[in-house]
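Dataset card, provenance and construction

Sequences and ligand SMILES were collected as paired inputs. For each pair, a complete structure of the chain with the small molecule in place was predicted and serialized as structure tokens. The example below shows a pair involving magnesium ion. Curators did not alter the output after generation; any descriptive sentences attached to a record were derived from the structure itself.
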Amino acid sequence: MGVITRAVRNISRRKMRALLVIIALGFSLAIMISIPAGVIANQESALGLTENLGSTITETQATINQTLTQIDCTIGSSFEGFGFAAPDQSVPSGFDFTPPDGGDGSGFTPGQFGNGTGAPGQFGGGAFGGGGTTAMNETFYNDINSTLDGVAAVVPTLEVSEGTEEEMEMMGRTFTTLSVDYVIEGIPLTSEIVDNYPVLPTDIVDGRNLQAGDSGVVLLSENNTLFFNAEVGDTIEILDETFEVIGVYSSSGVESTTTLYMNLSDAQSLTNNTGYITTLTVFAESSDVVTDVATEINDLHPELTVTTGQERLEQLESLQSTYETALEEAEASLSQTQSTAFQEVVVAVAATSLIVLFVMLYTVRERTKEIGTLKAIGFSNWTVMSQFMLEGVMLSLIAGVVGIAIASLAAPTLSGLLLPTVSQQVSTFGGARMATTNPGATSTATTAISLTPELILIALGAAVLLGALGSLYPAWRASRTRPAEAMRYE
Amino acid sequence: MSKPLLTLEKVSKTYMLGKREVPALSNLDLQVNKGEFVSIMGPSGSGKTTLLNMLGCLDKPTSGTLLLSDVDVTKMPEKDLYKIRLNKIGFVFQTFNLLPYLNARENVELPMEGKFTSKTGRKQRASELLGMVGLSGRERHRPQRLSAGEQQRVSIARALANDPAIILADEPTGNLDSKNKYEIVKLLANLNINQGTTIIMVTHDGQVAAQTERMLFLSDGKITREKQGRHVAKKKYTCPHCEGKIAPGDERCPSCKKKL
Ligand SMILES: Nc1ncnc2c1ncn2[C@@H]1O[C@H](COP(=O)(O)OP(=O)(O)OP(=O)(O)O)[C@@H](O)[C@H]1O
Ligand SMILES: [Mg+2]
């Protein structure tokens, strides 16, 4: 007849009371487990978010730095800004340029010219100068590089939208609209340009990027692969010519990107534009001289529409500040969660030991005569004390097991009820935007709570500790019971 | 004849009820020898239970000394006193005071735990003791499944567990019907004769007290009268009526057939 058996039998003497107490203690302990589990999950999701935001900010910063030296030159075209041409969006067809007849490609010197796409896909730079841009003779502007100071490189590009022309009657007039299927972007694939300037998308998801010297190959966006129903290694037909798909870049930056990249000369011959380009992208030597270079270009060729990176910069900066706000938000709400969690755990800890305290005090009072009897028949103070300590600890330990069971079933619900929904807040604020940068960012929004073996051990440890703490005073009271209480009548 | 086991000298006990003093024992002198079967009678509130508490070291007198085997227990600290209760004294209560969640044998084993007796040793002794009080086969019954008389037998077995020098019983027959009452008194009397256990028993019942050896009368915290009981004769194995020879367990004298 050990002390442990006696403790268990004493607990089971009052079954209903024991049950209620164990459920109450169990919930208290379940809360104690669920909250840290919830915090850990939140922490992980916030950490993921922080990492995503952090890398996005770095990328944005890099793009801004690159953009700072970039000047786009087009003829007679409206600036399309950040309007990413949706595949099914109708773009007014400004495409009535005449295919060059006398145009010769003699003036084109690789290395001297570059290509004119903006920053890689992420921010839709590719759409710059897209749509309604007028073609221009690529040799005509050789003087920009040869006569102006502060020019690092000039990159000529050709951008042609392909799709179905539709006639539309409006207010008595007939308009021709183009439903764009894809946009051909011709980039001069020389190592000087490709290696040094951000002219190609960077976010390759399959295959490889275009390299200097590539010809007869295309780099598709993910959206293009759907349109052409092709993947890396396949050959596709573009305007009746075959190309091999060499790589695929992510469309996630700009969901609607339908731009495919190829060698400039391929694009020129394919679209009957030999010797013609749509955009000249000029890279200044440093961001300090960008404005001066832009002015000089305008002085030299007043017919050109010159756009510096300034407007794009503003866009990027506002985007960056959005990310930074999201990051701060995430950090702030995480620390708020942590402090809320801390307070709740303190309450649960206090509740657990108080429940044990009151139950055991009640038990000790109720069993005064019994305790007196034990002392009258020779039990020492110490034996009585340890008997009651053990009873409190056993009670709490049983409740600990129940608590783990409750937590394993209801931890997400409990922590959802008790913790501010951090990840939700952040994800709706930052995550939606984040999704455009990193598709993984959205998945971090769902809080996955798991009961690790460590947490279970900690919970049982806490149950034992708090049970001991709560029954310390009642057990001491029990040990002080006068043996003469045994003689009392009731 | 025998040397005193218990000696009380000018023992007083005054309870405090708030600021009011309640005297329960006043300058009480008493000697109990080894092997005596003593009964204490007296009106309600005369101090019988208080006296028993002093004798059993459940409480300390306000003044006076109590020698148990020549040791002054009034000066002992609690950390030593529990050993006296464990080893020297066995208690029998009016309300039996068995632990309801333990069976008969486990209740009897309880005092043996403090002596670190082996588990099997405890079980064996508990079974023997239960056999001695006539409860073999009832070892595994919980108290609520035993009659009042049976419960009091378990309680006596428990009191005997550590082979005490004295058994102190506070109205052990108070909650029993007359049949059980005499059975319990007979059990105690036989213990006294066969094992030489010193027994001090408080009772309201004159018939019960008459079965003991030495009847003490208490009133207002003092022993006012003392009388010999029938047990004296039993101890001498002679019939009090015809002086014929009797055995300790006899209910009637084998010679004169009168009730003993
Ligand atoms: N714990 C206590 N606190 C205060 N007074 C007490 C206490 N215990 C006993 N008394 C008082 O001491 C006196 C003696 O009580 P005690 O219980 O010894 O009497 P008793 O002879 O056993 O009576 P009964 O036959 O009713 O059991 C009574 O007046 C009682 O009220
Ligand atoms: Mg009494």
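Derived descriptions for this record:
The CA atoms of residues 100 and 143 of chain B lie 6 Å apart.
The longest strand of chain B covers residues 4-17.
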